[in-house]
Amino acid sequence: MKRVVITINRQYGSGGKTIGYMLAEKLGIPCYSREILQRASEESGINESMFNERDERLKRLPKFLLSTNVYSGELLPPESKEFTSDQNLFNYEAEVIKKYAAEGSCVLIGRCADFVLKDDPDMISVYVHADHDFQMKSALERVSMSEKEMEKYIERTNKYRSDFYHYHTGRNWDDAENYDLCINSGKLGFEKTVELIESYINIK
Predict the structure, then answer these.
(1) How far is CA 42 from the centre of its chain?
(2) Pfam family of this protein, just one (predicted)?
(3) Is the pTM of this model over 0.90?
């Protein structure tokens, strides 16, 4: 199979992560999600908990990062006062994303991977979304919450992903112009969404 790198951004409850792993298994290639943070921690020497705490802290901010700090590729050295800043943590995540892509075909979930790899001719960017009812049903099957709690959780998680993406890329997360494919998994289901992405890979 020719080299292909698929990046997936997804609404919470759309099944985008599950779809990514299903696609990777079907193609016989690795899929990376939390592994990105784990490897970033190993290579930077920064405790993985700092990456996780950063994510949780930013989720709680009512108006997270209204400005932008678009990723440019710079890595700050350990002696820098900003070595463990939110921006430099992302810089290490981006370095890992580029290394995974350089190692061969793979699927990358989230982390603005589409922007980090925007100049890679073998990259295919996908945005997976679904309607409200599908998001709720899918999410409640995996997480034990009341419907009211889940409503708020989905809204908060999608807002965080949108803000995180905008801060590091200067782009709008749900803008179709950012992606090769925008797929409504609620209408197609997971298996047909995988088939659609695979068909696009074969055509491209």
Answers:
(1) 20
(2) Cytidylate_kin2
(3) yes
Tell me the β-bridge partners of 128. 10, 183
Whole-angstrom CA distances from 134 to 11, 37, 40, 158, 189 are: 11, 29, 33, 15, 10
Name all domains of the chain by residue range, CATH numbers in brackets. Answer: 5-203 (3.40.50.300)
Q: Structure tokens of 178?
A: 């950012």
C-alpha gyration radius of the chain: 17
What is the per-residue pLDDT across 97-156, written as a single tens digit (0 to 9) for each? Answer: 999 999 999 999 999 999 999 999 999 999 999 999 999 999 999 889 999 999 999 998
Q: Which amino acid is at 140?
A: L
Sign (positive or negative) of CA dihedral 167, 168, 174, 177: positive
Backbone angles phi, psi at 187, to 5 degrees: -90, -35
